[in-house]
Design a protein that fits this description.
By secondary structure, the chain is of the alpha/beta class. The protein contains 25 helices and 22 strands. The chain folds into five domains: 194 residues, P-loop containing nucleotide triphosphate hydrolases (Rossmann fold); 151 residues, P-loop containing nucleotide triphosphate hydrolases (Rossmann fold, 3-Layer(aba) Sandwich); 91 residues, Arc Repressor Mutant, subunit A (Orthogonal Bundle), CATH 1.10.10; 75 residues; 70 residues, Arc Repressor Mutant, subunit A (Orthogonal Bundle). α17 packs across α18.
């Protein structure tokens, strides 16, 4: 099929958006390509369409597990075979998925950058018929980007696996410096193409307001702007408190943060997406991979850490290209807090070494042990146990990740999965020998198809009802059959994970790059300074954001708070000038009492007319004779 036929058949569109076709053609011509497109600009189409138009598989690297899962489900709903591999999956499960990519009809393999560090995964990719490497969130490869991820630094080695396969890097947040860094770090070949779509969102009205009483202003926004909305706050406690306060005002609102269990997070997200709950109060854990086009407003009740992060979060409003509002409320205490966070984001070498030492103790690792081991990791519990500050600890962990001592994954929900390893004859003999397992095995085979071929998502609670067993009994029996190598069983999890990439070192022998720490501190200082300048300066908001992405020739947007105030000021100046002319014209020809004069005036409101009359009187341009005035 042609790319237009693919677009129509699978996505139902008659035409591409601006730049999409150019990017797709560059990829089809075999050129390495960097696509810089704003949030909601349709980046995924740029690698999905050319993959469907060619033979072979596309390997998509993304750091966002929620986004990977979402895209895989969307592709499957279109009848396209896609799989995802990320932290939390067992070795056998990954083996089967990789085999399907080599020998089956899989068109898309989504994989986290951490997984590409595995020699096994890389070797299997070498045997796939790859037609494209797509690097999503490509700004993560640059330490100058706002969300640097150390595992991205190894992505250039994909070139060694398939030297002739083009690389498509995509991002919605990249300055010129970051863009250049991306092409260098990914080892783009000569003749590579860069396509940059303006980051301007002409339908998004940016509003910044200095407010001591933010909740009162928030209510005003909610009541004046109809439709779906997101309210971003800094911490989990705040999500609950703001949602509770809104409910007390009769406003239907839910809250969302990473501390909720997976089932509850999914339900709240779905209720909001489906319009059952119009408003959600969330931390920045919410939003990635959620494509809801009709969000009418996004309100930030706390200052973001960078303009890049703010642009992404605010950009979730108005993806249907209709008018939407991005409102940022702040006060002097917020600026103090942002500067304080800057210190928290800058741990010393000694503090980093201490966090590393505590990690070893937390997981009870001996010195020289732990390489390759993966653990569920509760950051809150870790900090509480060793009385550590959360922000500083998180920064220390990111530096340890950059130095490749550890790898961290985001919190993600994985359902329980199961695959039968034994053949039918062996399984039947086991059922005869162990009749207490017979009912569960029969229930398994009746309830789920494909258990002999691949890992299948299961629910222990449903199995327990059908097999007339307790949920704990079902888990115990599945674990026992796993011990006997009859099946492979992975219980559900929604914990973030931490992997030790190297054996544990003594803290005094843990080398930290001092130069990198200084550069990192400088980057954060610049990012915080840009946020403070954004909220305090008197300029077009859109123009300021675009300048942050090196678009320096943008015009005033005309719809942000600054532009609207300028328009009102200009209109007031014109009305005042017309009132002055009218007063002078009337009083030159006759003396009048004030009430008669005001009655004769046609321009402006009565308040504006009285204001201009007093101005002319105080300036000595109008004279008084008793109750009458003249010029």
């Amino acid at each position: 099929m042609t790319i237009h036929q693919v677009l129509k058949q699978y996505w139902g569109y008659d035409a591409f958006r601006p730049l999409q076709e150019d990017i797709i053609q560059s990829v089809l011509d075999g050129q390495d390509t960097l696509a810089l497109m704003p949030t909601g600009g349709g980046k995924s189409i740029c690698f999905q369409v050319p993959t469907m138009a060619k033979e072979g598989i596309c390997v998509v690297i993304s750091p966002l597990i929620a986004l990977m899962k979402d895209q895989v489900e969307n592709l499957k709903a279109k009848g396209i075979n896609a799989v995802a591999i990320f932290s939390g999956m067992g070795k056998r499960e990954i083996d089967i998925l990789l085999d399907n990519c080599i020998y089956g009809q899989i068109k898309f393999l989504y994989i986290s950058p951490e997984r590409l560090l595995s020699p096994l995964v890389r070797e299997r990719i070498r045997h796939m018929k790859v037609n494209l490497f797509a690097i999503d969130e490509a700004h993560c490869i640059s330490q100058w980007g706002y969300d640097f991820r150390p595992p991205y630094l190894h992505l250039a080695s994909l070139r060694e696996l398939h030297p002739q396969v083009p690389i498509l890097a995509l991002t919605a947040t990249a300055t010129d410096r970051v863009a250049l860094d991306i092409t260098t770090k990914l080892d783009f070949r000569e003749g590579f193409q860069i396509f940059r779509k303006s980051f301007e969102r002409s339908n998004l009205s940016y509003v910044v307001a200095h407010e001591e009483y933010k909740f009162r202003r928030l209510l005003k926004v909610i009541k004046s702007v109809k439709g779906s909305g997101i309210i971003y706050v800094r911490n989990r406690r705040e999500t609950q408190e703001v949602a509770r306060q809104l409910s007390l005002q009769g406003i239907s609102a839910s809250f969302y943060h990473a501390g909720l269990n997976a089932e509850e997070r999914t339900k709240r997200q779905d209720d909001w997406k489906n319009g059952k709950v119009p408003l959600i109060v969330a931390t920045n854990a919410f939003g990635m991979g959620i494509d809801k086009p009709d969000v009418r407003y996004v309100v930030h009740l706390d200052l973001p850490d960078s303009l890049e992060a703010y642009y992404q979060e605010a950009g979730r409003g108005g993806r249907d290209e209709k008018k939407a509002y991005a409102v940022l409320l702040y006060n002097d205490a917020d600026i103090e807090q942002l500067n304080k966070n800057l210190e928290q984001n800058s741990p010393s070498v000694k503090e980093i070494q201490q966090v590393y030492h505590y990690l070893g103790n937390y997981f009870q690792l001996a010195y020289g042990a732990g390489e390759g081991l993966v653990y569920d990791f509760d950051l809150g519990d870790f900090c509480k146990r060793y009385q550590l500050e959360v922000l500083k600890t998180l920064s220390a962990l990111k530096i340890l990740e950059r130095e490749e001592h550890i790898a961290l994954s985001e919190s993600v929900y994985l359902p329980s999965r199961l695959k039968i390893l034994a053949d039918t004859e062996t399984l039947y003999k086991f059922q005869i020998a162990q009749p207490s397992y017979d009912g569960l095995i029969k229930t398994l085979l009746r309830s789920y198809g494909g258990l002999f071929e691949q890992f299948v998502a299961i629910k222990e609670s449903e199995l327990s009802k059908r097999a007339n067993l307790s949920t704990n009994e079902v888990r115990r029996m599945l674990e026992k059959m796993q011990e006997l190598s009859l099946l492979s069983y992975s219980a559900q999890t929604d914990q973030p994970q931490l992997q030790f990439l190297r054996a544990r070192l003594d803290r005094d022998h843990l080398a930290i790059d001092h130069q990198y720490l200084r550069e990192r501190q400088g980057i954060h200082r610049h990012q915080v300074g840009a946020v403070i300048e954004y909220v305090q300066s008197q300029n077009c908001r859109s123009k300021q954001l675009l300048a942050n992405f090196d678009e320096f020739n943008a015009k005033n947007c005309g719809i942000c708070d600054y532009c609207i105030s300028q328009k009102k000021s200009s209109q007031n100046d014109q009305i005042e000038a017309k009132i002055n002319e009218e007063i002078e014209s009337i009083l030159k020809s006759e003396k009048l009492r004030l009430e008669t004069l005001i009655h004769k005036l046609k321009f402006g409101s009565e308040a504006q007319q009285l204001k201009q009359f007093r101005y002319l009187l105080d300036a000595g341009l109008i004279h008084q004779d008793g109750d009458e005035f003249y010029i």
